[in-house]
């Protein structure tokens, strides 16, 4: 989704071992049915007539970082999204980006062909008083392509709950928790994994916002792959809908486990520049 900034990469040997399912899925709900439902409903928003409640964006970034990990082998990405928000607080949306993290894990004998991430989400936003707002929903990450026999599906569905405190017009503090109801991005037996996301945004001058982020990724049955990430950035917004964001990110992820077949450490410190246009 548009705020995606993950743990979806490992080295070529470790990723193959961790993504071959050895035990049956044991998610407490029917995740495949949920994925299909979310995807169908969210993609339908693209067919809605233009209205004040319909918004979207397109962006070009020097590196697609999701939860601190490059999804594009430290190369640029083109991204776009659309969302329809009802006055009641319910919303539905879809988002997409080019990716390469799956195909970049190819080892001898593998046949992985994927270059696209398509996300679909729906949820509800509300307020509790003047200063606090909340957000609850479900998000599906879909990776169309071909995979070798026995490769655990990277498609993932998470439910999330977030809250934002805005003590002033220029400061907001947010906390969000995402819980995987399917295996997480292909890791075997990893349903129940969670990600905690904390953010502070401060508009210190009109059009200029300081962005601080910290996150922690837990991965069930794959503890060695767990890590924390952080980001410091600044965003300049313009009246015509354009914005430019510069950010420095880093993680404490294991170098061997997050180094791909091209010998790139995807969770390394990184400076990114993103240009986007909202409509």
Helix content, binned percent: under 10%
H-E order: HHEEEEEEEEEEEEEE
Q: Going by CATH, what is the homologous superfamily? A: monomeric porin ompg
Question: How much is the radius of gyration in Å?
Answer: 18 Å
Distance between the termini: 16 Å
Total helical segments: 2
Q: What's the CATH architecture name?
A: Beta Barrel
Q: Main sheet: which strands, in order across?
A: 1-4-5-6-7-8-9-10-11-12-13-14
Mean pLDDT: 87
**What is the CATH class name?**
Mainly Beta
Q: Give a count of the beta strands, DSSP E runs of length 2 or more.
A: 14
Structural class: mainly beta
- Anisotropy-based shape: globular
Percentage beta strand:
over 45%
Oligomer: single chain
Give the number of domains: 1
Q: What can you see in these coordinates?
A:
- This protein has a single domain (12-278), classed as Beta Barrel (Porin), CATH 2.40.160.40.
- The relative contact order is 0.19.
- The protein is mostly beta strands.
- A twelve-stranded antiparallel barrel has the order 1-4-5-6-7-8-9-10-11-12-13-14. Strands 2-3 form a two-stranded antiparallel ribbon.
- Strand 12 and strand 13 form a beta hairpin.
- The protein is built from two helices and 14 strands; from the N terminus they run H-H-E-E-E-E-E-E-E-E-E-E-E-E-E-E.
Task: Describe the structure using short key phrases.
single chain, 2 helices, globular, Porin, about 5% helix, mainly beta, twelve-stranded antiparallel beta barrel, about 280 residues, disordered N terminus, two-stranded antiparallel sheet
């Amino acid at each position: 989704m548009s705020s995606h900034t993950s743990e979806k990469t490992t080295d070529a040997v470790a990723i193959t071992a961790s993504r071959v399912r050895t035990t049956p899925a044991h998610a407490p709900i029917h995740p495949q049915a949920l994925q299909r439902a979310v995807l169908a409903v969210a993609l339908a928003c693209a067919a809605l007539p233009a209205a004040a409640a319909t918004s979207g964006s397109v962006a070009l970034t020097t590196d697609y970082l999701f939860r601190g990990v490059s999804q594009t082998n430290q190369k640029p990405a083109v991204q776009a999204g659309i969302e329809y928000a009802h006055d009641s607080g319910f919303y539905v949306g879809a988002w997409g980006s080019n990716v390469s993290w799956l195909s970049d894990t190819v080892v001898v004998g593998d046949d992985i062909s994927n270059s696209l991430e398509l996300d679909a989400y729906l949820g509800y936003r509300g307020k509790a008083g003047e200063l606090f707002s909340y957000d609850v929903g479900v998000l599906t990450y879909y990776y169309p392509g071909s995979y070798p026999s026995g490769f655990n599906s990277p498609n993932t569905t998470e439910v999330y709950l977030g809250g934002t405190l805005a003590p002033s017009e220029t400061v907001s503090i947010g906390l969000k928790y995402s819980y995987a109801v399917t295996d997480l991005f292909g890791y075997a037996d990893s349903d129940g994994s969670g990600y905690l996301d904390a953010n502070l945004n401060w508009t210190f001058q009109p059009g200029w916002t300081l962005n601080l982020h910290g996150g922690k990724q837990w991965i069930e049955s794959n503890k060695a792959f767990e890590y924390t990430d952080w980001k410091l950035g600044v965003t300049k917004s313009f009246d015509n809908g354009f914005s430019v964001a510069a950010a420095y990110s880093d993680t404490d992820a294991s170098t061997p486990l997050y180094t791909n077949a091209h010998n790139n450490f995807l969770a390394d410190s990184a400076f990114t520049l993103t240009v986007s246009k909202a409509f």
